[in-house]
Amino acid sequence: MNKRTRTLIATVTLTGAIAFTGCSNSANEEPASSASQSDNAHAGHGGMDHPMDGGPVPEGMTAATDPEYPVDTEVTLTADHMEGMNGASATVVGAYNTYTYAIDYTPTEGGDPVTDHKWVVQEELEDAGNERLADGTDVKVAADHMEGMNGAIATIAFSTDETVYVVDYEADGMEMTNHKWVVESEMQPDS
């Protein structure tokens, strides 16, 4: 089975599972992801749902001219933003020069605050300008990586100017396409 077919099957399966889960009418039922919520909170994603396809990059992104890992390079991820990500094989689908931020925010729909969410880029922050923003700066997020992120007021925890990448990878039987973002230090050559 080729990669495109596996991606299609995974997407259809996940869509069906989400639709089925959304049909539940019991107010006392706990979300299926709640068990992993505390496990993922340290990784900056707070156990929230992350889309299987990250979609296109924001307008105005500048492609890296000589990235360490060019498009179509096979790499191994060393990041742990998502469950199963650390050690996963990935394919680079984009490399960009920008400032990349870890942020703290409270989702717009309520819920527990998210700390050290990795990552959002300069182009995903409203009125961010072109200069690197200082740690502690409050910003309005224009990214929708996770539910409740778009429109949230966030505080910059820290930042980097490393090349930032969009990758496709598989973890725990699920295929993620256009995952945003992984910085260069969170990748290594595929062995």
Automatic annotation (TrEMBL):
<feature type="domain" description="DUF1541">
    <location>
        <begin position="73"/>
        <end position="122"/>
    </location>
</feature>
<dbReference type="Pfam" id="PF07563">
    <property type="entry name" value="DUF1541"/>
</dbReference>
<feature type="compositionally biased region" description="Low complexity">
    <location>
        <begin position="27"/>
        <end position="38"/>
    </location>
</feature>
<protein>
    <submittedName>
        <fullName>YdhK family protein</fullName>
    </submittedName>
</protein>
<feature type="signal peptide">
    <location>
        <begin position="1"/>
        <end position="26"/>
    </location>
</feature>
<dbReference type="InterPro" id="IPR011438">
    <property type="entry name" value="DUF1541"/>
</dbReference>
<feature type="region of interest" description="Disordered">
    <location>
        <begin position="27"/>
        <end position="68"/>
    </location>
</feature>
<feature type="domain" description="DUF1541">
    <location>
        <begin position="135"/>
        <end position="184"/>
    </location>
</feature>
<keyword id="KW-0732">Signal</keyword>
